[in-house]
Amino acid sequence: MRLALALLGLLLLTLPLRANAPLGPRDVPPAFAPFAQVETHRIRVVNAADGPVQVSSDGGKNWQLVGRVTAPATESLTGYLASGYAPPGTVAAAAVHGLRIRVGDLGSAYPKMVNVLPREFARTLKTFGGHVAGDSGIYTNIPTGTGIFRELSPYVGNRVYLEGDTLAPLPVGYVPHIGDTLVIAVRRPVNPLTQVVFQNKIGGDVTATYADGTARVICHVVKPVLGTGRFDGTSYTGVGALNTNHCGVITVSTAPVTTSKLLEGEGGERRGGFQIEPAYHNSQSEEAGGFMVLVVGRTGQKYAMDQEGTPPLFSGYFNLAWDPQDPKHSWRAEIQRADGTPWRAMPQLLGSQTFALRDVTAIRLVCDDPLDDDWRGERIALAARNYRAKARRQAQAGKTRIERGKLTIRASDANSRTQVVAFSVDGVLKGLTNQRPFVYVWNTEDSPDGEYVIEARAEDAGGNTLSATRTKVWVDNTRQIARR
Q: Which residue in 58, 86, 259, 350 has the fewest CB atoms around it within 10 Å?
């Protein structure tokens, strides 16, 4: 009897959330007042096989290598519903399992996208329910839930640029080409959030508190969350950590970071979490009224599109920072099971648990110190050290060529149609020649020891690429690694 009543209550909660009309191309969120931001770092991705993924903490003057591209994007493909809420040329979603960039114009509710993806999502996994990147994916060797897919992640709404002689805004309708360099300028709020409290009941307040101590009710709960479901990437996220923030969702993980060698969806269930969604978006999604979704909106305006793609919940204020050893700098979800009681850590819950959160009276998302940019600089250095250590092991094992001193780079694939050859190191042009035999001498002593990819690109008279030869090398002028 008790279960039957609970199910009836769940049904009654879901019925009012169904909107009457589907999302149309002109149904876009309202404009919102801009908020002051400050740049914390930049992410640069060269869209080519072995292209560097780098991070800079000084405005692009110096870059640190944190990974490489394993397969470049060649297309922009249709996105998902909430990507239509993001401005063109911006980050539409940050998740532990991928960064989504909107490139389509404002004339479509489902605009074109380009994606940057971690190692484990190089192919579509079993039971994957999210946006499938396909040929729009820039696939990397960076593990899911680390580096740019964790504490170095951008914020929703951050601008994306195309790097040439200068940084140019990503053009509307952009289609990626091999060799393009994308730069994300990661900017956080000057006055960031320190917590958001959701009263987990119909009509409950959603109260945001900022670093300057001010607090205000920003919206209300339309439908409380009752349980958990299975969401992509949560097995790589951590209990209570943020899995995704995009223009129509915040996903909180209730699953621990997996130690399994199997990919997500293979073997036993390792996913778990719940979502926070704005009312209009939820009414249009497959999770409409679901027990694993907390729905927010304006009192008396259940279907108004007034939260989608707007700060602070669905643009600009959350990144994915989380470290169980450093809660001070982590975004984490906590719960109350009775009003006024101490906050408790989010419980570990795997899979679909219909009523696991039914007695939760409040949920808060909290980060104690979102203003510590020195901490972020330390994490950039840590990501670079981790990748460098991995690359060095490859060189020590003889899997990467070791070079010292002056290195002669040759265009071995040049033919009779070749008019000019461009030589680059990690995507940066080093030399250009139209003189045969098309060689360039790179003095490696001018660069720090470490891993580099050198490229010789042959072009015809029209500037079309005829061939591109890439070679990965480890520069070791300190002679710490013996040549094999």
A: 259
Provide the CATH number for the domain formed by 399-475 in this structure: 2.60.40.10
CB 309 within 8 A of CB 278: no
Distance of alpha carbon 473 from its chain centroid, rounded?
Answer: 29
**Residue 89 tokens, joined:** 């040329």
Most confident of 146-155, 446-455, 466-475: 146-155
Which of 163-172, 193-202, 360-369, 413-422 bottoms out in mean pLDDT, i.e. has the lowest?
413-422
What span, in angstroms and rounded, lies between the C-alpha atoms of 242 and 65?
Answer: 25
The phi, psi pair for 310, rounded to 5°, reads: -120, 150
Q: How confident is the model at residue 286 (pLDDT cuts 50, 70, 90)?
A: confident
How far apart CA 129 and CA 363 sit, in angstroms, is: 26
Break the chain into its structural domains and give their ranges: 2-32+191-374, 38-189, 399-475
CA nearest neighbour of 208 among 114, 305, 316: 316
At 139 the three-state DSSP class reads: strand
Total count of residues recorded for the chain: 484
Please give the pLDDT value at position 11: 38
Average model confidence (pLDDT) across the chain: 89
CA distance 269 to 350: 7
pLDDT at 200 over 90: yes
Residue 184 Ramachandran class (φ > 0 left, ψ -120 to 50 alpha, else beta)? beta
What mean pLDDT comes out for the span 87-100? 96
pLDDT band at 274 (very low <50, low <70, confident <90, very high): very high
Q: Is the separation of the CB atoms in 217 and 207 below 8 Å?
A: yes
Q: Which of 366, 306, 311, 308 lies closest to 334, judged by CA?
A: 366
Q: How far apart are CA 323 and CA 6, in angstroms?
A: 36
Question: What amino acid is encoded at 285 in this protein?
Answer: S
Q: What is the DSSP letter of 353?
A: B
What is the Cα–Cα distance from 130 to 126, expressed in whole angstroms?
A: 11
In SS3 terms, 405-440 reads as CEEEEECCCCCCCCCEEEEEECCEEEEEECCCCCEE
Q: Give the list of residues 6+ apart from residue 172 with CB closer than 8 angstroms, or none.
A: 88, 89, 103, 104, 105
Tell me the percentage of the chain whose pLDDT exceeds 70. 92
Q: How far apart are CA 293 and CA 10, in angstroms?
A: 12
> What pTM value is reported for the model?
0.89
Parallel/antiparallel/unpaired status of strands 293-297 and 273-278: parallel
- pLDDT confidence of residue 19: 32
Sole residue written with tokens 């980060």: 367
Whole-angstrom Cα distance, residue 31 to residue 20?
23
